[in-house]
Amino acid sequence: MLEAGGCHCGAVRYRIDAEPVFIGVCHCSDCRRHAGALAVAWISIPAAGLTVTLGKVSPYASSPGVERQFCGTCGTGLFYYNESFLPGLVDIQLITLDNAADIKPQMHLQMADALPWEKDLLHIPKFERYPEALAHYH
Asked: Average pLDDT of the chain?
C-alpha cells in the first residue's frame, strides 16, 4: 500500500508504505474530544511504514504512554501512538489521507463509549447541503 496524506493547510504531508493492520472508527471519549468530532476513523499500520515527507508534527502527550501528533499550524490531528496498547503501530486519522473515500473502515471500536443518541442518526433528516431554513445564518 502506498498512500499519501496531510493536514488541512498543507504544512504537513506524509506517506504510508505498509499494509493496514486494521481500519476502524473509534467512538471513545478521548478520540471525540481530541478531534472535536463524533468519532474518528483510524488506519493502523506498522510505525516503520509512516514517513513524514513535508513539515514537522507537534506532539501532545494526551495520557501516560500516549502521544498524539498534529499539525502545529492548522491543528489537524494526524497520528496516534500508544506503545502499551498498540506496540509498534501508529494510528493515522483516515480522513487525512488523500484518497480517504476509497478506504472503508472494517469495524467500530469502543462502542461502550458511544454517545447514546448515535444509534438514532440514521433516522433523522439528511440534506445534501445546508437546508434553506439555515441559509440566512451564514
From this structure: 92
